[in-house]
Amino acid sequence: MKDREEYLAYSRRSAKEVEAHGGRVVALGKFREAGVRGIEPRQVMILVEWESREALQSYLDDPKLADLHPHRIDGTSEYIWHFFDKLDDLRPILGKEKK
Question: Residue 52's domain spans which residues?
């Protein structure tokens, strides 16, 4: 974390705004230990599930949130965005049927 106060300013409001744009915080955790070597650990991990890529983009582009995103940027360092398909989207690839 680069600036705790900046990130707190972001976190106070972000969950409500994420939800309003079709996102849902699935997990939040503080780093405890690395299970794999060679990967630079992050101190905090937040996993957000979005209804769609467009929902995420609407969150990022919403002009009413122009004052919110700088708190995330100023409050963190080496922020990483990763995008994954939902398990249900992978079932055909894995040869699994929905139960």
Answer: 4-34+41-84
Domain count, the chain: 1
Q: What's the CATH number where 77 sits?
A: 3.30.70
* 10, 70 Cβ separation under 8 angstroms: no
Rg of the chain (C-alpha set): 16
Please say if the pLDDT value at position 16 is more than 90. yes
Residue 99 lies in a domain: no
From 5-9, 42-46, 73-77, the region with the lowest mean pLDDT = 42-46
Q: Reduce the secondary structure of the chain to three states and give it as a string.
A: CCCHHHHHHHHHHHHHHHHHCCEEEEEEEECCCCCCCCCCCCCEEEEEEECCHHHHHHHHHCHHHCCCHHHHHHHCCCCCCCCCCCHHHHHHHHCCCCC
